[in-house]
Write a structure and sequence with these properties.
By secondary structure, the protein is mainly β. The protein contains nine helices and 33 strands. A hairpin with a 4-residue loop joins strand 16 and strand 17. Helix 5 (382-403) packs antiparallel against helix 8 (500-507). It is elongated, with a radius of gyration of 29 Å. The protein starts with 13 loop residues before the first strand and ends with a strand. The relative contact order is 0.10.
Length: 584
Amino acid sequence: MRNGYIAARVIGLVMIGAQVVAADPVIFPLDKIRPGLQAETLTVLQGTEVVSLKTEILGILEGGIGPGRDLIVAKLVDSKTELTGAVHGMSGSPVYVDGKLVGALSRRLMLFEKDGHCGITPAEYMVDVANRGRGPSGPGLVSDRTPMPTPKDFMFLPSPESRSNVLGIPMSLTGWNDSWEPLKGKWKTLFPGTLPISGGSSGKTNRELPKVKAGSPLSVVLMSGDVSMAGTGTVTWVEGEQVVGFGHPMLGLGPLQLPIAPAEIVTLVPSYLRPHKLSNTAEVCGTLYQDRLAAISGELGDVPEMATYRVHRKHQNQERPDWTGQLIKHPLLTPRLVMLLGIQALMEPQDFSETFTATIQTRLSFKDQPDLVMDGFYSGGVAARFDAVLGQMIPLAQLFAKFGKQLSLESVEYSVVSYEQGEVWSLRSLETERDEVEVGDTLKVRVRLKNDRGEEKELSMNWEPPEELRGKRVSLRCAAGSALNLDLDFSINASRIEQPADAIRYFNQSYRNNTLYLQAVSLDKGVLKRGKVQANLPVTVYRTAKESSFPQTSAVTDTVVWSQQEQRIQGMARGIVAKGITIR
């Protein structure tokens, strides 16, 4: 490959109307690279016009990309980039020497680099990505080498590829607000290799853009519509319907199916820290199939299926405009996008207040699976808003962590009704008129609560022990729904759930935070062995399992709920209070 010409893998340089005319230049061999070679780099600085930038080759940095993968070092010496140098968004800009493709502009050499030094990914490495074609396919595709999220770190995974000095992909965000500050520091692990940039990715440009060609901007679309997200880089070459670009990964996820779209550049923003292109994204025009170390590769034409979203909001009894759009289907990325969409709905600055009360319903519809429906009630301060986000999103993330390859999201709907005042009640005590009760008798239960203003109130409930508790001693407890939801620990129960439909039904049993649950409970000890619970074993067996060092065997304690009744309150409840009762 290094000693000969490789044809038919390079972009056409001539546009006639809106049609790409494929030329047949060859790749400039890597072993022919010498300091002082004069090159030209094709990119768009504004609008959709591809321009040429004078470039000087400085040499080769051996192993500069990775083991056995060299980096071509160059310098932009054109007056048009004298102020900016190489900017984020130029990733993929093709570089030519004597009409032959050297590779794709892909790196700045230093964070505050200011005089045009840059790195070029050799075209030979990018050809390998192009030759992989579509690769494995199917809805819900995810690479086998991509780690699935766990309940602990589902939203914050390390990047699967090196990002050292890579020109980041500007991730244009439309319709996003700035009130989710605590998550901003996690952006690099949510979407590694990208830079969040405000505005420009709605997919609703006012005019039709020309088809992509060498040096054209290309967007990978994650969301479109009122709330949208798209990462924009540059095309290195087009051959027929195949598009190759970026010169480095988008997210480094290997084989996948994501929408791609043409884009236009609004302007270049100069900055020593983060110079970047501002862009607008047009309608989706194809599919990205490969996301690799040296390049991305896709095809124009067919577009992947996307899920739909709708956010309905009502604040202080006033309707707000709905947000609608589409988002990608991907086991790793979809839960993150749904989570961020929920944050948008709960953190809308126009309706933000220090204290709040909100009812939230999240409905996720999957192909050939039951709907996941989470009804929530939250009240309190800013921290309670994040409790609301996590309460709604953790079940989704845990569901995808175990069954991601089996799920295809069809739609997500949020309904949020909010008010600018909070009401939180903490459970203080549970009292009964006696500690023993006959089966068939009615026991009066009094529960005391106190709110954050110091006000107290008492609620009364009646409990009748069922026949199956005759001769037993149980714990009669009053629990807030928020406390009981903490016991819905999918990481413990996941091994017992083998089908996604069962997991969805499990999460649909969540408790309401504005409701008190009076329960008669007892604890049963057992052993979890190879995913199966064995209960009612001798105490010695339980103790042995508890001390076992084998990961497939462990001691477990199951809570058995014998009876339950509910009482809704005005506000959010927290805590658990209990008392032992003997049934005769």
